[in-house]
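Example record used in the benchmark description.
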Amino acid sequence: MSQTHKIADALMQHLPYGGYDHSHNTVIYKDIIAHSKALELVKVSSARIFAVLNGIPDELIDEFEREYGLPLLCGQSDVGNTINDRRNEIERVKREGHVLLNLAGLHKLFARYNQSVLTVQTYVPMQCLGSCVDPLNTARLRFRVTLTLAKPVRADMNCLSKNYLPASLRLDIK
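Model output (structure tokens):
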């Protein structure tokens, strides 16, 4: 059974009983088949349009920026003011997000604000079978990271930590 006939059968089922003949040999059914062909074309065309239309219209740039928390906070940013620059930044945030949970993401975040990370030191919490000289204060060590940044520190570290890093991450900057 073709898609046109499926649409026609669905439309025929919506006709009220008693007033219309529901057989396939009537003029009404031929009329519904003609309308079903138009509806099938609409369905195919809409699928093609939505497959192509994955970009962001110029009229909706402000709404997309508001949705994704743009423009970026914390001062410096390498995004221009043209429509294409703004659209590219929205696409980047859709792809990568703001909060970065890995070392490569941490380096990329600081590079966006012209700050280079020299070293990243993480700490391992105490094991259950640790020795008597292992650290006891594991709640503070579990999510602690010490960053060594190149001087001068130009980035607003409090702003970066508040807006782009997970709340569980504690930064100690040397």
